[in-house]
Amino acid sequence: MNIGFIGLGAMGSPMAENLLKAGHTVTAYNRTRARADALAAIGAQVAAAPADACHGDVVITMLADDAALEAVALGPGGILASVLSGSIHIGMSTISVALSERLAEAHHRAGSVYIAAPVFGRPEAAAAAKLFVVAAGPSAAIARCRPVFDAIGQKTYDVGERASAANVIKLCGNFMLAAMVEGLGEAIALVRKHGLDPAQFLDLITSSVFTAPAYKIYGSIIVREAYQPAGFKVPLALKDLRLMLAAGEAASVPLPLASLVRDHAIAAIARGYAEWDWSAVAKIAAENAGL
Amino acid sequence: MNIGFIGLGAMGSPMAENLLKAGHTVTAYNRTRARADALAAIGAQVAAAPADACHGDVVITMLADDAALEAVALGPGGILASVLSGSIHIGMSTISVALSERLAEAHHRAGSVYIAAPVFGRPEAAAAAKLFVVAAGPSAAIARCRPVFDAIGQKTYDVGERASAANVIKLCGNFMLAAMVEGLGEAIALVRKHGLDPAQFLDLITSSVFTAPAYKIYGSIIVREAYQPAGFKVPLALKDLRLMLAAGEAASVPLPLASLVRDHAIAAIARGYAEWDWSAVAKIAAENAGL
Amino acid sequence: MNIGFIGLGAMGSPMAENLLKAGHTVTAYNRTRARADALAAIGAQVAAAPADACHGDVVITMLADDAALEAVALGPGGILASVLSGSIHIGMSTISVALSERLAEAHHRAGSVYIAAPVFGRPEAAAAAKLFVVAAGPSAAIARCRPVFDAIGQKTYDVGERASAANVIKLCGNFMLAAMVEGLGEAIALVRKHGLDPAQFLDLITSSVFTAPAYKIYGSIIVREAYQPAGFKVPLALKDLRLMLAAGEAASVPLPLASLVRDHAIAAIARGYAEWDWSAVAKIAAENAGL
Amino acid sequence: MNIGFIGLGAMGSPMAENLLKAGHTVTAYNRTRARADALAAIGAQVAAAPADACHGDVVITMLADDAALEAVALGPGGILASVLSGSIHIGMSTISVALSERLAEAHHRAGSVYIAAPVFGRPEAAAAAKLFVVAAGPSAAIARCRPVFDAIGQKTYDVGERASAANVIKLCGNFMLAAMVEGLGEAIALVRKHGLDPAQFLDLITSSVFTAPAYKIYGSIIVREAYQPAGFKVPLALKDLRLMLAAGEAASVPLPLASLVRDHAIAAIARGYAEWDWSAVAKIAAENAGL
Description:
The structure is a homotetramer of 291-residue chains.
Chain A: E1 2-6, H1 12-21, E2 25-29, H2 34-40, E3 45-46, E4 58-61, H3 66-74, H4 79-82, E5 88-91, H5 97-110, E6 113-116, E7 119-120, H6 123-127, E8 131-135, H7 139-144, H8 146-152, E9 153-158, H9 163-193, H10 198-206, H11 213-224, H12 234-250, H13 256-270, H14 281-288
Parallel strand pairs in A: 1-2, 1-4, 2-3, 4-5, 5-6, 8-9
Antiparallel strand pairs in A: 7-8
């Protein structure tokens, strides 16, 4: 397929690379051009502006937040103004439920199609094409995009016609990871202060009750305090929690656990860990215990 | 081995049954005798008093809380007063770090041995001999007790000489389950209020990011609101959270997530769900969202 | 003085009335005209559009939220487009720190002046001209507006040249009221469930430790569960907490107590109390205790 | 009156001194005798053991916690074993609801009388005889003790026949002070990080909305970070919050705000502020904001 790809960050770059490896044509745009040039070395076309990435079958966005996507999609010279009738915009970043709804409607009016397809997985999973893709939008369009999803992920879920459903689910998943990290952080702080070996504790619980790989990945970061280099930085997790809380407020759902982790993410930034991996919320649990 | 077994509740009964099936001699005591009689039908001896269960190689306790164990172990006619020199008391219930330390010391003075060996798993896992056993105490004694652990569990962890280490780890594991249930409860409330299918959501996250069986087991209870019959009732989870918070206070570790779930467990009791499964803390999340 | 007044809600109407009583000329605008007509009966001019209220010395806005003020101030036919050079816009509603900064800058560029002057006090205090005014902006402009503040309040604080300082302080004050109401709500729930008389409890603490009138006013609402008619409805308090949390996030200040009350405000809305006084967050404390 | 006084800490010493000044005979006991000797210099008798303070009309206890009072009251050579029939034990320290109930019952069986009379006020208020006394117990006994209460306080409340009612109210009052301090701490952290003057903020709110002296006293400590010397140390506040939470759990009342401040009190201890005034929970709010 002929694919435009906008946003070559820690996730976008390996995803675009996997699309190239799968034989797709990729026209890539990134605000700082160096990252697009790196991709050109393995076969990508470099777009000088977002509009130049909008002339294929599909344009994928993988941008940092709502503001970035709003500018690129709805701003002057943006995707809505440039995309061909009938082609598909796949929004893969974690954005708000509200923006997803606006984009679906704008594309519908413009004769193009919007699919929300956020992904679960850290940069290493993106590199290994092992992401989980949560896709929502018109089913025919999702079917057409299967080769895209297959090239970057290990499994794709189709969660229905309403694009924003995928965003709700993605936010919930990220929130549950945050709940897990908070739980790990508090438990590991307690284990340490009782003089026990946190690595042994982690081995034990991840080989018995909590066998999901996410527990091992994050638990290992926390036990080793290996918050750098960051897979996802604290402000990105704070953004996701903010979006989750906004989705909660919009539907009148109190989310006290999301509030709790949000407060710890803010504390992590306040204390100088903004560049660290977001699991540094567990560092706050440790510091609050005097560790 | 010749085993005394005190406490035949939802967990203790299937555990004792598995010991019988494995060929051990079991002398069982329960406050309400009917449960001991049921076990007699498949080969157990019935003890008329706790002391009568203390004359074998090992005496296991599986009681509801600190108060019950304290009475049976340290009270008049209790284990400490009755156990043979050199024999082993295995405390398998979830008790406080402090009581575990007192029991280890009391047995040491009495010439007997205390092993803490709390287990992870719900009654169904106990019935299937699929528990995870976390054992701590003198290593020679743990080695002697291997046949006991093998008969009831799928895996045993030896976490060192200090008995209370096993209790710290057990409390941390239960706390992490509580964190998981709170996260599931809030996420599922949001999913519902956004008009999505919670069963589909659960299938998605448990086949991608959260593959540990505990997510499926508890997620399924919450999605179906199948809080009855209870595997473990709310007050038992509240007790475990109280013990976790006490272990935190003793070591100066704030545990805000434990506090949060504790408050929801109290709300569940206040609203009439004391007889429900403890995962009914997720019912509070739902009700607070107007569901 | 010649004063425009935009926004005649539960607070704005009595404030405008007090300006009339003090001898000022008032040109009033309200989206639903009936409220302006009521004021005309006691001497106000009625403006057909916001622009018509912008031709005097001063234009005051007392609107529900950021969106309403943004539309009236910055939208087409709005204040910025209509105000005379050198005249003063006094923003008296509780708005975000960010919007206050934008307004100050926009007025500065336009040759007019922005003063932020939010007020403390409920509608009864507005009627009695007993509000507390927290004013910030160019000091000469504040001095010119003294007659306005004197007509509506019992005391005015000048907190400096930066307009948004007044908004930070107002948000902090509202947050502290929320902390007080949450504390009262939880304490009164406990008093009730221990079988004591909450009215006696309230008399005791408000005549000893907590003598500030706010404790009596809100405590009495909570003790009598007299949440209707509402002085300020729950969604308005939720908005203020949201603004407080945004001010916290902007400066990297975690505000866990604000998060807690926010969750209870959302629960109050979810459970059907959106039309009640915002102190109905205490109703959530009561319900969570099974009352 | 002939009064025994047990417990001469930061509160007890000035209280006993005021009893002497009022003309009462005081026989004082303290574990570390030096404090009793200091009182002897102004006319007190020194008791060598608690029992020696039990032969008058009244014996007052002002001890650190439940454990201390339980030992002195119910232990061998304690008050219950020594007090004369018909005489009165006034428990003035902040203790658990449960212990108050046990003491009332024990005294009733012994033919003596138990009055719970905890006080509001810091050491300076104790020195100035400006405490507020919350008394509960048999009304005739309370009437007999009026001269005692009048000598140490500015006002006495009689809250009924059930002694533990006074303890519930005292715990609620302390909790509401904790809510106030947490609110002040978070607000002041925000004010600071927005570059405003916290002293000006405090003056403003304490002369408008929050006029109760407690806001000035604690706000001033927080603004000046004058946590030493301590009026009441952090562990004492943590104890009171623990008792409040226990009273909540006993009556199935979730108290999330009490849990929140408890966590901050534990963090304060973990970070090395155990010897500071308990308002150092606000120091945690500041540190979590990177201040």
